[in-house]
Amino acid sequence: MAKYKLNKRELLEHWNDQLSFIKLSAEQYDKGKENEARRIATSLRILFHEGPHSIPLIKQTGLIHNFLLWSSGSIYTPSNLLSSWVLLLLEINASGAYYKPRKLGKGDRDRTFFLKYEDWWNEIIFDDKKNVFTRKDIVRYVANQDGGAHVDMKLDEKYAELVKHNSLGWMDHMGNPVRNNPAYAAIRQIAEELLISQYIFLKGSYTRKKQNNRLFEMRYVDENRRFKWSATDMVYPEETYEIVKQYKKEDRNLYVYEYKDGTKIEVISR
User: Could you write out the DSSP letters of every residue in the chain?
Assistant: First the structure.
């Protein structure tokens, strides 16, 4: 018997269902149930992960062509001598140090950008000075090994270093390592990025204006992992650029998208 093929409406129902699951788990995370990050990661995997036997919903629905994804993190640079965790903040209080998702939203001062799927999914969000991790890496580790959809008795070494052995190296004022899981906090922030992206997408039509003389690019540390960079919008010493320019680059353009309600976002795209 031939298999039933879902139509676009049915596929979009699945997309919206996964966003609803993510929103509910995000609310529970914010109430202190940080292991809800495992559920979030499983939904993110369904939406975005592509493998030999899986096509992500962002492709099945056709949303890949016009769905912009919010890159909420601070600018990453490989020249930083300290570890990087661009989606998180470090909070130190009387009970210790904790990673917190940035959760920047509309009206916040930090400058952020929107990216297309491939750049966003493969963008570096952690660098512990031994390994770098993208959104894709973190979602896959949490979903595939750390209890989202599967539990592995043995975690990959570099992920175990990140979440079990404090490879980021940060501590509280008493010398104690950060108390919570940085990958889970990053998953919560990725959820926020997606929910804001959906909010922008539902605004509908927009006008797009290319920002000439604004030079942006993606720099690749390997075949897929990458980070956004600008030769015109970032202040950096020459020593930093000498490191950055060692990596392969692909040029990108900077656009301003303006929606009917006056909302404006900056988009880095081909």
Answer: -PPPPP-HHHHHHHHHHHHHHHHHHHHHHHTT-GGGHHHHHHHHHHHH--BTTB--HHHHTSGGGT--EEE-SPPP-TT-SS-EETTEEEEEETTEEEEEE----TT-SS--EEE-HHHHHTBEEEE-SS-EEEHHHHHHHHHHTBSSS-B-SS--HHHHHHHHS-TT--B-TTSPBPSS-HHHHHHHHHHHHHHHHHHHHTT--EEEEE-TT--EEEEESSSS-EEEEESSS----HHHHHHHTTSEEEEEEEEEEEETTS-EEEEEE-
